[in-house]
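Lecture notes, part 5. Sequence design as translation. It can be helpful to think of inverse folding as translation between two languages: the language of shapes and the language of residues. The source text, in structure tokens, appears below.
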């Protein structure tokens, strides 16, 4: 173990860190169910679902078998000029789930958003986008340009990024009545810039890595109406919110709307392999014509096979009841953190403690790991997005660890 961690420190650059990282890295020997076993023998409940992707947990037999079966036929084949059953079946399944007609298979969430932006620009002939502060859409260049330009994680690249139009963030609170003044401000801003805008891009109902903010579905409905009024496309970035995380299959379902373009990823394969997709209506596809994009591993057979198995499993399991149960346990357990925090909020299988000041990541991780839990706080947030497979006892461990971490903020 010591040698492994030494080599890691010497050679491996981890995400969102300097080199070497300021916060310790922990080596994982095994992942099974909802637990991670570290090489030093510690066993931790994974409260992060491997960055929100492993919704079924680890070593899920159906998903393991899907990978093994696909290996007997092929691990990969180029998608240019060729196709195969797992990719076609996945595309059909996604069409059935979303109501969108055309599917472009990508290899990561950021790439899916890049493709969505290309689609919007080609379909409209306009090059600027409209979005809201507090958002996060990925780490590649065009994705960074529609993330929060001030409080986001990409401020170092401000001078190099395309300049888009930003509205203030939607007022916080899923259950808080909509602010008519905010809606009027957004409508006015859109009206002034509509002639140069291709699309509105949003994370439906939940703004994820930009701050774990939840907002009322009425705002999303209004953005759909405004997009139609001003002849813009609506892009829904469902990479974090898709496949049940918020209590509905997709974030857009809370508002009863359909976007023109949708991005999905993360939980698409149940956390097994990197895969994403950009979907659009037939009308948008016709306006685009030739789409100049083609990742080398587009439509990878292993990834699409396990995605099919994951979506089949999701359809068979009572995920709505599971997520509703997780929501109830998180809400009850995290309420004890309120005296120590700026805000405590829960929606679906997402629980958030927001501190008054940025937290000490190492300190928080030490506290929760001592209690047998893995979390990855950032900024002012101590949060969890656990696997749907978590039992009540697992969730109690997560909430107790989070409350203990919140107490340390005093």
């Amino acid at each position: 173990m010591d040698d492994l961690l030494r080599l890691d420190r010497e050679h491996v650059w981890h995400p969102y860190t300097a080199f070497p990282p300021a916060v310790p890295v922990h080596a994982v020997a095994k992942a099974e169910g909802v637990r991670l076993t570290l090489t030093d023998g510690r066993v931790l409940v994974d409260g992060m679902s491997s960055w929100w992707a492993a919704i079924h947990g680890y070593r899920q037999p159906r998903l393991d078998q899907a990978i093994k079966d696909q290996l007997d036929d092929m691990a990969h084949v180029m998608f240019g000029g060729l196709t195969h059953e797992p990719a076609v079946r996945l595309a059909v399944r996604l069409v059935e789930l979303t109501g969108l007609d055309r599917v472009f298979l990508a290899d990561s969430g950021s790439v899916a958003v890049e493709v969505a932006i290309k689609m919007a620009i080609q379909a409209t002939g306009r090059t600027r986008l409209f979005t809201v502060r507090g958002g996060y859409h990925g780490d590649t260049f065009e994705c960074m340009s529609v993330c929060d330009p001030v409080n986001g994680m990409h401020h170092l690249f401000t001078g190099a990024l395309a300049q888009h139009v930003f509205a203030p963030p939607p007022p916080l609170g899923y259950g808080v009545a909509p602010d008519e003044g905010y809606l009027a401000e957004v409508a006015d801003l859109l009206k002034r810039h509509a002639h140069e805008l291709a699309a509105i891009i949003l994370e439906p109902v939940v703004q994820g890595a930009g701050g774990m903010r939840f907002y009322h579905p009425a705002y999303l409905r209004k953005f759909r109406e405004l997009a139609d009024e001003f002849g813009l496309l609506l892009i829904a970035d469902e990479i974090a919110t898709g496949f049940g995380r918020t209590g509905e299959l997709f974030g857009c379902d809370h508002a009863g709307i359909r976007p023109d373009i949708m991005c999905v990823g993360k939980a698409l394969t149940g956390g097994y392999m990197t895969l994403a997709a950009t979907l659009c209506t037939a009308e948008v596809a016709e306006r685009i014509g030739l789409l100049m994009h083609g990742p080398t591993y587009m439509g990878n057979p292993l990834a699409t096979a396990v995605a099919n198995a994951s979506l089949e499993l999701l359809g068979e399991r009572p995920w709505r009841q599971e997520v509703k149960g997780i929501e109830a346990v998180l809400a009850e357990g995290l309420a004890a953190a309120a005296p120590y925090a700026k805000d405590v909020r829960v929606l679906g299988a997402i629980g958030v403690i927001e501190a008054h000041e940025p937290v000490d990541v190492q300190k928080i991780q030490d506290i929760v790991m001592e209690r047998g839990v893995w979390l990855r706080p950032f900024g002012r947030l101590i949060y969890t997005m656990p696997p749907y497979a978590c039992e009540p006892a697992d969730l109690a461990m997560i909430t107790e660890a989070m409350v203990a971490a919140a107490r340390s903020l005093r």
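The translated text above is only one of many valid answers, since several sequences can fold into similar shapes. Residues 74-316 form a domain with the Aspartate Aminotransferase; domain 2 fold (CATH 3.40.640.10).
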